[in-house]
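Supplementary Text 2. Reproducibility record for the structural model of the 245-residue chain.

All settings were left at their defaults, and a single model was retained for analysis rather than an ensemble. We include the record here because the model underlies the residue-level annotations in Supplementary Table 4.
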Amino acid sequence: MERLQKVIANAGVASRRKAEQMIQDGKVKVNGKLVTELGVKVSDSDRVEVEGVELTKEVKRYFLLYKPRGVVSAVTDDKGRSVVTDYFDDIPERLYPVGRLDYDTSGLLLMTNDGEFANLLMHPKYNVEKRYVARIKGIPEKEKLQQLARGIMIEGKKTAKAKVRQLSFDKAKQKAIVEITIHEGRNRQVRKMFEAIGHPVQKLTREAYGFLDLRHLNAGESRELSHHEVRQLKSLAKFGQKPHS
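Retained model, structure tokens:
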């Protein structure tokens, strides 16, 4: 059961706020009866009409996008910047991102129109690993990387344990490439972690989300997930492992 305004929004008719207004304005019927109060919940078996047109049930879609830098992880942007949905103009369903990647961070981002799936993956009690590769300023000492791995205080709260390894460094240019795997999703977390040890991030890419990676994709490209991959992601979120095939 889902709230009526959410069902209308998910069908791509209008935003949730606009859908609420349409309900209050007497433009929505459920099973032939006029509904004007918010809070009504409906199931898949209920027939919903908006301004006399019956809603069609959207097919659930799941995509993996290689988000480029300089693109907002949102459906719209009030500053007129490029958003991730710009890469799905040919998809009729109303997609939105699962979580977000910073404007200046590139990499793997999931897109869907399945709210239950998105909420499952974003729920803080579920631990889906996310692997990043960061180009950082300076060459960190081993002890500093171990601090990141053990957990480090940022904004008054200690981060969970992480997997950290240095991939390469350049003494002449004073920079290093470090791979870090976390399962939390705090705002700009990876950047703040490196800032906390005195090595700010110059470039950041999310290379993997759970078992998914960017293989065979270039920035701006996407692919649809298979039914098996979707099932694996749900199991990974709930149980911390992929199901047996």
